[in-house]
Amino acid sequence: MAAINGHRAVENGNKSEDYNEKKERMIEKIQRRQEDRVADLKKRQEERQDRSSKSESVQFFISTFANEKSAIESRVKTVDGNGKTKPELISIFDGITLSVQKLQKYVTDSALFLTAHDLGRAQEEVTKLYVVVNDKREELIPKKKFAFKARKKETQQPNNNSKISGKIGASVKPSAPGKENRKEDDVVNSTSRNGDLSLFSQFQCGIFNKTDEEIKLNGSEINGKDVGLTNLTSCTVQLYGTPSAIHMDRITNCTIFCGPVPGSVFVDNCKDSTLVLSCQQLRVHHTKDTKFYLHVTSRGIIEDTNKVQFAPYNWTYAEIENDYQRSELDQGRNSWDDIDDFNWLASDKRSPNWSLIPENERVTVWDN
């Protein structure tokens, strides 16, 4: 009997231990569920707060941007030449242009929380402001008809390597070699010989319908202006200064350099070319087999584009530091390798339509 009672006591003890273990496991399970529930609730609250914060930031940006834009437009409308000297007018327009540049910087600084659509729309509005300001400046401070110096080159078959021939990493001239007989001082008006008046009227200055030419435009010709480059083949173009925006269309087998652009660079229908660009925003459409040496302070955008490559901007010239100060572009911020392909929807893979230029294949020095 004692043995039976002892056996039952052991069984009851084991059952008690099993019950306690099950109880503890159940309590732990309930606690984990509660902790997960609290963590999930906290995460949802943070997400709501983040969405609310972003929404408030966007709404504040839209309101502030609209007010600043309206103020600049009002200043432009109230400027008149009555009783003002040329230096006084220049000072007034320089002040207005500075306000546009500050607005451009505000757009750049807000790029982190703006959608691509809102950012692009704001940038387009800033570009329009530059045009309005410069149209009014030209009205009250007329200049001579725009012209540029072009150096005619001998006719040759297009060659994609002609503009950057030579050893990678060595000093490379941005113009095609073997042009000993070109004319040095052939003055060409962009609306006359080989020009297109309808194209020229869309921009404040530009280069149109050229083949096998080397062309340089200085800051005095393009600063603060909307520049157009259209229908160029086998040309080398160097843009010194700070144009407000650059529009490229139908560019084939060209090498194009530009100083800092406080606005946007738009590239369309470009192929077999090298573009050395510094800008606030880059938008590329219908382009292929083209290399970009890029400084951009927001995320570059490509669409309907393939076989394009990117490397950091590395062009330099005597006045480039002054031009950067004038443009207010942040030299310390460069998203040259962060490109958004509007035709590529996968978020876990980079688009196959663009790549980085291998370091051992990059041109490191350009001769001016």
Textual characterization of the structure:
The protein is 39% helix and 27% strand. With 368 residues, the chain is of the alpha/beta class. The chain is globular. Helix 2 runs antiparallel to helix 3 (116-140). Strands 1, 3, 4, 5, 6, 7, 8, 9, 10, 11, 12, 13, 14 and 15 form a 14-stranded mixed sheet that branches. The relative contact order is 0.09. The chain has six helices and 16 strands. Residues 144-201 have low confidence and may be disordered.
Give the structure's gist in a few sentences:
The chain has 368 residues and is α/β, with parallel strands linked by helices. The protein has helices at 2-78, 86-109, 116-140, 197-200, 219-222, 320-327; strands at 147-152, 171-172, 186-189, 205-211, 213-217, 226-233, 236-239, 245-252, 255-271, 274-285, 288-296, 300-303, 306-312, 339-341, 354-356, 365-366.
